[in-house]
Structures are given as C-alpha cells and as structure tokens.
Amino acid sequence: MSEDRRYRVVIRCPKCGEKYILRGRKNKAGEMETGFRRCVCGNESQLHIDIAPE
Question: Are the beta carbons of 33 and 22 closer than 8 angstroms?
Fold first, then answer.
C-alpha cells in the first residue's frame, strides 16, 4: 500500500450534527492526517469518522 494514497474522510459530530468532508493521507505511524482538530461546537473526542480510498 502506497503512503501517497489519498483517502476521503467524512467526520460527523453527534453533538451538533455538523459534517466535514476532508481528504487525508496516512502517516508513517499508520494514523490518518487531515488537519482536522475539533468541531465548531468544541467537540474533540466524540466524532464519527468514515474513511474510504479515493
């Protein structure tokens, strides 16, 4: 699997219902990097994340 492969990342916040559609890549540790930090409502931990290859 190539490290340069991009993924479509959909993040949904169950607290406020906000939805974010981002692109990301896996880093060397195997974690997804998108630049997303927290929802506009301040939620950082209770997020629903769906990842699919582009």
Answer: no
